[in-house]
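Bug report

Summary: structure tokens for Large ribosomal subunit protein uL1 differ between web form and batch submission.
Environment: batch mode, default settings.
Steps: 1) Submit the sequence below via batch. 2) Compare with the web form result.

Sequence submitted:
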Amino acid sequence: MGKTTKRFQELLKKIDENKIYSISEGIDAVKTLKSAKFDETVEIALKLNVDPRHADQMVRGSVILPAGTGKKVRVAVIAKDAKADEAKNAGADIVGSDDLVDDIAKGVINFDVLIATPNLMGLVGKVGRILGPKGLMPNPKTGTVTMDVAQAVNNAKSGQVNFRVDKQGNIHAGLGKVSFSKEQLSENISAFIKAINKHKPAAAKGRYVKNAALSLTMSPSVSLDTQEVMDLK
């Protein structure tokens, strides 16, 4: 533990904890915080002024990051016949129906994204209690329940990030790698924030974004200017 703490203390010296950073400054700052042996993920955390217990204040959707996520995404598709062929041709890693659901029921999950055709959602429902907590349940809002499986596979492979506000009103997402150029990170962060702003519920009152922060997988975080964040449309 001591080593981690010492490393963390060293990183804290590189940033000003009391400073509110512009998005541009925030990206520069987190890029100096690289300390792990692997290519760390640049993460954003937003605290929204919404109460997700009310359906009309739920913030959920997906966005395609212009520069991708920097990680290889394994995509599984639950489909039959022509739709199964379409998924395979689009580059899905795993395609199946009952056999795939049986595997999931046994706890075998070799994928990061699950897509299903609407007619097979009854089948998927059998393993909903396994998929739900892992955030893998296909959903029409994120484009993962669809007849256009080829498009959904392409989206997942090309850097689609799904977001969903938690019970406390927080949203977390990985928006690229620390090895990305500043331009790539700026594009990704901008696209993500715009998507969050676009999904602002009409019922949300007051300041929509209470707090915003950027960090790396293993770093402290820097606070972002929430006004700049809310102004990104």
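Above is the batch result. After comparison, the two runs are identical; trailing whitespace caused the diff. The longest strand covers residues 41-48. The beta strands are 20-21, 41-48, 60-64, 75-78, 94-96, 113-116, 160-164, 170-177, 209-216, 222-224.
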